[in-house]
């Protein structure tokens, strides 16, 4: 089953920016990114160092972990630079008007 949950307002997310959000009903926080007008969402913690990715650098579609510098593609979750090897969980997003929703699967 897929659940549509509110993440944040599109107008609050600038281009090439990210924002950590808490989602009702799940234990983990997510990070929402806007890159070239598209919106992406991933788990908030690096799979290698378990630190908040919102503190890292977003370059294009790559988020770099602030602890060890490993990178993930925010579109696919793929680990793209060491020391990260385990992919980051991603979530589909939908923009409706000014609202950004994540699609969470059970």
TrEMBL record:
Name the UniProt record assigns to this protein: Rieske 2Fe-2S domain-containing protein
The keyword Iron appears for this protein: yes
Gene3D superfamilies documented for this protein: Rieske [2Fe-2S] iron-sulphur domain (2.102.10.10)
InterPro entries the UniProt entry points to: Rieske_2Fe-2S, Rieske_2Fe-2S_sf
Organism: Acetobacter malorum DSM 14337
One Pfam entry name: Rieske
Keyword terms, alphabetized: 2Fe-2S, Iron, Iron-sulfur, Metal-binding
Domain Rieske: 5-102
